[in-house]
Amino acid sequence: MNLFEVLGHYNYWVFSILLMVGMYAVIARGNLIKKLVGLSIFQSAVFLMYISMDKVEGGTAPILQSGNPGQLYSNPLPQVLILTAIVVGVATLALGLAIVVRIHERYGTIEEQELLNAD
Amino acid sequence: MSMDLSLHLPILQVIVPLLAAPLVVLLQPRNLAWAATVAVCLLAFAIALQMASRVLLGDILYYEVGGWRAPFGIALQVDAVNALLLVVVSGAASLAALGCRESLFAQIEPRRHPLFFAAWLLLLAGLSGMLVSADAFNIFVFMEISSLASYILIAGGPDRRALLAVFKYLVMGTIGATFYLIGVGLIYMMTGTLNLADMARLVPEVADQRPVLLAAGFITVGLALKAALFPMHVWLANAYMHAPHAVSVFLAACGTKVAVYVLLRIDFSLFQAGNLDHSIRFALFLMPLALLGILVCSAVAMFEGQLKRMLAFSSVAQIGYILLGASLLSEAGLTSSLLHMFNHALAKSALFLAAACLSMRFMDLRIDSLAGAARQMPVTSAVFVLGGLSLIGVPGTAGFVSKWVLITALLEQGEQGMVMVAIVLVSSLMAVAYVWRTLEVLYFKEPAGELKFAEAPPLMLVIAGSAALLNLVFGLMPAVPLALSQQAAQVLIGGAP
């Protein structure tokens, strides 16, 4: 595999880097909100992977135009899938934040170390 | 025009609880919300039993949602592999909702009841959906529905430590589900389909197998996280311990097993069928982790002071038994694996129901603080004895049957099998130790002061008692679950999706 091929897959590089960045934030950060931000980055990376795979070179948005039978368009299925996954991601993030709010109410802190010492 | 509902059973299994969930929110008097939830759970249980009885006769129930032909539409399929688990899931939901009425009313604030029960039904819908789906992406969606609902349920109790446990569970669960999603994406990239049967047909034809192997890695690790395979079990112990008791009963019986089912279904039909090397990799990955999990978590359970945490660690060890059977890649091994999912659900639901009964009279479920409880609570203690015996695998109980099948399967493996048999026996002895430790406190230890309280409420006792008796019934008459598990093992080994 030569350099151009490696660089040519740049969306997948961005995907893997974002995935690792998100994972790192989840593991290394002590603040629960920052952990959730990391989790969100982690999930968004996968959205990029799905969107990258549906691209057809020269293709337009997958909306059929009348009188254009030879129209080239991107694969709509991964886009639909990822729309669902985005909804799931939003729901998870919302629930995670709600739990952090409750943790703050009950413990008065959202720093992991202080929480571990609390009880 | 008459409509034959029996054709629609696979979808009814999912949409009955799914549609009932928002309706339950509207039911204000708390008994009404509870009664509606129990009714829906029992209806789902009846549907699951009806489907299992047809699968037992050799039927495969196949359903195309909205009449869209697979692979374009979403297909549902109920065969021997998931029929038994559907019974477990809906049965556990019914048992836990019925048997923990007073416990739930004591633990959950009255104004939150309708929302709590809605989440309960969503968890049932999500787990059932994961089981019936024959579509890789649909499984992801239902996995997230069930996960979100279980986070809500675990955090729903009065214990503030549940919040920390559930945060950990949410983070690890999301990472697991996202790994699964990456794996599905990679297979879709190579095959262009999401239908499991279609994938199974196309995966062996893929010229470059590297992305498929990567997908196998992501899916296996992601689902192992969800299934709490050792050492990815760290979220489980605190989540089960601090959850409301009813939720512990429900989740301990079936929560992680559904993820194990998805792992087995996808790995055997997709990856192993087309690639012989992969089965070896699958076995070499799972077997050491399963054995370590069995040993380490049984040992931890021996020294755990909290009753529910001890049971949770024992659950992780049982997941080890289930995956050990599967990693043998033999028909007997898979039979033991699937049968143990059923039998362990019986034992653990009885034990957690007993814990819920004890919690009605004891503020704190530390094992030491339960001294002499058997004098005041003879029925609850008897339930604990039966559940414990089944967990150990004493002959005559359900737990014995699956351990027997597992040991038979291990002996088929020759010399290495003997080592694993030894490990299984050692961990059974450890189970004797941790079950006995609790029984000794319940029966023989002198209470600190004079205990003045009655048994747990009658409904809780009746349900806990019948869960315990089921351990005996299926220990003495294991024919039906055994036949279904054997059928399921043949389906999985045959590589049919």
Give the mean pLDDT of chain A: 89
Radius of gyration of chain B: 22 Å
Alpha carbon gyration radius of chain A: 20 Å
Uncertain runs of chain B: none
Spatial strand order of the main sheet of chain B: 1-2
Shape of chain A: elongated
Kindly report the oligomeric state of this protein.
heterodimer
CATH topology of chain A: Helix Hairpins
The SSE order of chain A reads HHHHH
End-to-end separation of chain B in angstroms reads 34 Å
Please report the distance between the alpha carbons of the first and last residues of chain A. 54 Å
Largest interface: A-B, 28 and 25 residues
Features:
heterodimer; A: 119 residues; mainly alpha; Helix Hairpins; 5 helices; B: 497 residues; two-stranded antiparallel ribbon; 2% strand
Q: How do the helices and strands line up, and which of them pair or pack?
A:
The complex is a heterodimer of chains A (119) and B (497).
Chain A: H1 3-8, H2 10-28, H3 32-53, H4 76-107, H5 112-118
Chain B: H1 9-25, H2 30-56, E1 61-64, E2 75-78, H3 80-99, H4 101-107, H5 113-132, H6 136-154, H7 161-191, H8 196-202, H9 210-227, H10 236-242, H11 245-274, H12 276-303, H13 307-327, H14 331-359, H15 373-376, H16 378-392, H17 398-411, H18 415-444, H19 458-476, H20 479-493
Antiparallel strand pairs in B: 1-2
